[in-house]
Specification:
With about 525 residues, the protein is of the alpha/beta class. About 40% of the residues lie in helices and about 15% in strands. It has a nine-stranded mixed β-sheet with strand order 7-6-5-4-3-1-2-8-9, sandwiched between helices. A hairpin with a 2-residue loop joins strand 6 and strand 7. It is globular, with a radius of gyration of 24 Å. It starts with a helix and ends with a helix.
Length: about 525
């Protein structure tokens, strides 16, 4: 018993600081924290969202000092970020190494997985792929003073050399994983340039939940496909928590965040489940949770029976990736064998039940250098064909290191070797979006037009653009004149944003009005 207590205390004294250079909704380090706590180790989670909502702005000296103070007593520091925030992660790692050169720093997450060769230049350890088992093994070895450089999923920089270990099989039974760490009294968040204790108010009533890993699609631009290739032959592509496991996790998280008003299932495609699985989930969800939820869907997984099951359980909103109206682009470039007929069929099903949920969000990729003028026009035509009302979200093409499309763009000279080609873009910044549209000069006029067509779409308008103007703006004469008028689009969008803000100030509900009028 004495030896057992001694080991328990030894683990408790080995403290790990886990830093997220993203918002508080990321789940990766919450799963890692739970896996480590299950082994008896102490963790401290620190969330560092963008200051003043500016993703490109580096941390101030004062913020860095606060971070250093939080990690000084940790035996190991873990850090994670998305590609957009990588420079701030590098900034923190550099400051830690300057102040505490002997303190080990491990970089993990999707960006670290797709770009370990870049991350190992800064952090001494990089975790590739799923980290719960690998991280726990690494920490146990460090705590026991054992050799750890052969830990699978890990790269190490030692004496000027890089040690690259293979990945272990992915976790196949997700019910075996501990629930994400929402013991927020032990967590900090950056707010108004100060690290403060994380409180439930910071979540604004929304809880992110990931109930499955893996995606049924293999899109060339997406990090999910990188994971598919990383784990090829090592285990199943898609793994899911059971209905019972989902409900247990939700109860566990809601107990810690009792004011949760909305649950967002962030699985790549929640509808990938069978009808039987959804029925089992819906039955338990209605009985125990009873909170509205939203999820991501894909055109090929939607059918009326699945939708009715989930609507009855509390589904209130869906987001669906369309990406393009060009079937050529989908097949030849994006490797998405999803015909427009499937997109329209899915949209018609969603529209049929529109009165029972919020407007669906349809998302497309804009400013792709692989697009022809015809591809762009086909996307606009598809937007016109979709049953209204809906919300159109337009995202500029970003080439993420490690993805198939990044490598293709690199090989074809579309981007340079050190050019991340918009993977650092802040989609919330109008200035950033305009900058990246201008960088990709091909189809500039139609890219701008597609951008200002984003927003609430009704029978009367597409975002900022009146419906009657779309045929005019895409006519042959305008296709010749338009490229000389692109300077107008940013001004139109600014006017649109100000109008929307004014409506909100006056208490007008644009989305609700659009839905009421279009569904009559």
């Amino acid at each position: 018993m004495k030896e057992k207590e001694k080991n328990r205390q030894k683990r408790k004294n080995f403290k790990i600081a886990l830093l997220s250079v993203d918002d508080i909704e990321v789940l990766g380090i919450r799963y890692l924290s739970s896996a480590l706590r299950q082994k008896g180790f102490e963790t401290r989670l620190v969330f560092l969202p963008p200051i003043d909502n500016n993703y490109s702005k580096p941390f101030t000296e004062d913020v860095i000092k606060q971070v250093l103070n939080e990690v000084k007593n940790a035996e190991l520091v873990g850090i994670t970020c998305v590609a957009m925030n990588r420079n701030k992660a590098i900034q923190i790692i550099k400051e830690i190494k300057n102040a505490m050169p002997e303190k080990p720093v491990i970089w993990g997450g999707v960006y670290a997985t797709t770009s370990p060769q870049e991350c190992i230049k800064h952090a001494g350890i990089v975790c590739i792929g799923e980290g719960e088992e690998a991280f726990a093994e690494l920490v146990e070895k460090m705590n026991e003073k054992k050799a750890f450089t052969k830990t699978r999923n890990m790269w190490f920089r030692k004496n000027g050399k890089i040690i690259k270990n293979p990945v272990r099989p992915p976790v196949c039974v997700l019910d075996s994983l501990p629930f994400p760490d929402y013991d927020i009294k032990e967590q900090l968040v950056l707010e108004n340039h100060k690290l403060v204790q994380l409180e439930e108010r910071h979540f604004c009533g929304k809880l992110n939940v990931h109930t499955a890993r893996g995606c049924p699609h293999k899109c060339t631009y997406c990090g999910s496909n990188f994971f598919r290739q990383l784990y090829a032959g090592l285990g199943p592509i898609i793994r899911k928590r059971s209905a019972k496991g989902i409900i247990q996790e939700l109860n566990h998280s809601i107990e810690r965040l009792p004011n949760t008003k909305l649950i967002w299932f962030t699985d790549d495609v929640f509808f990938v489940r069978s009808i039987e699985e959804l029925k089992e989930f819906a039955k338990e969800y209605k009985k125990e949770i009873k909170i509205p939820f939203q999820c991501y869907v894909s055109p090929l997984t939607i059918n009326e029976e699945k939708l009715k099951i989930l609507l009855d359980a509390g589904l209130c909103k869906v987001e669906m990736g369309i990406q393009t109206g060009s079937e050529r682009l989908n097949k030849e470039v994006y490797d998405r064998n999803i015909p427009n007929s499937a997109v329209l069929n899915a949209a018609k099903i969603l529209n049929k039940y529109a009165e029972r949920m919020e407007l669906p969000n349809y998302q497309i990729i804009n400013s792709s250098p692989f697009e022809t003028e015809q591809d762009k026009l086909e996307t606009i035509r598809l937007l016109q064909e979709l049953p209204k009302p809906y919300i159109h979200q337009s995202f500029n093409m970003a080439f993420f290191p490690g993805t198939e499309l990044y490598n293709r763009a690199l090989n074809e000279g579309i981007i340079g070797k050190d050019d991340f080609a918009s993977s650092d873009m802040d989609y919330g910044s109008q200035k950033e979006v305009i900058k990246h549209i201008n960088l990709k000069k091909k189809n500039k006029y139609l890219n701008y037009l597609t951008w200002i067509m984003s927003g609430v779409v009704t029978k009367r308008k597409y975002g900022t653009v009146p419906s009657i103007m779309v045929p005019v703006l895409t006519s042959k004469p305008m296709m010749k004149i338009g490229p000389h008028l692109t300077f107008v689009f940013p001004m139109l969008y600014s006017i649109f944003e100000k109008t929307v803000k004014l409506k909100r100030t006056l208490g007008l509900k644009e989305i609700r009005q659009a839905k009421t009028k279009d569904l009559k």
